[in-house]
Amino acid sequence: QEEASDELAMRGRGLMIASHLTEQLSIASKRAGGSRVSAMLPVERAESEDPSTAIGYRGLLPEEHEADDGFFPREPFLRALTVELAHLVDIEHGPVASERLITGVGGSVGGHMEDAYRADRSLEGRLRPEQIADLYVGLKSAIGGDFYVVSIDDERIVLGNRKCPFGDAVKHAPSLCRMTSSVFGAIAARNSDSEVAVHLEERIAVGDPECRVVVWLGNPPPELEPFVHRYRAELAND
Length: 238
Prior knowledge:
Layout: H1 14-21, E1 24-29, E2 35-40, H2 74-93, H3 95-121, H4 129-142, E3 147-152, E4 156-161, H5 177-190, E5 196-202, E6 211-216, E7 228-231, H6 233-236
Antiparallel strand pairs: 1-2, 3-4, 4-6, 5-6, 5-7
Helix pairs in contact: 2-3, 3-5
């Protein structure tokens, strides 16, 4: 058997090589099997060319069957606009820039959704975990998602999802998953004394059959740290 320490070995050195080529490498097991690998590469991107040269770009959405009398109504158009913006930012500037943009939008939108939920139910003070979960499911259902509650306790809210609001096109712009993370995280942070964390444990966007989102109302297990997004109340209220 070849030893991983043998520099001339043909096998057994994959993780060692990957760790030397990346700035950061994290690996964790997935609930449904397999592993999740997160790597940060030292990539430098060239300056973007003049936007006028991108006029001929063939986008992913809207789909032809969504047209009404040859024109696209508001919902397919706005969905296409969101997906295409995320997709193009990802291509031009990288996934970090795309996720940063989406995080800012998601945090703001989440605040408005929470305000509407509170006003409709005449709620004051902090929302309980059960109310937060109800808000999550309701706001996602309103935009075409199919979220459901898996479990709720004082430490975490676990949700599943059978349908992405962005449809199959999200597979071409997986950074849009950060919208869910930032909306959920901002709402939880505004109703918490401490920092919260969101773990996108499974995602339709990257090939999982369903989404599974865990909102940690406190600190997640240490082994999940490289894979969570953290949110604080002061950022959520900005």
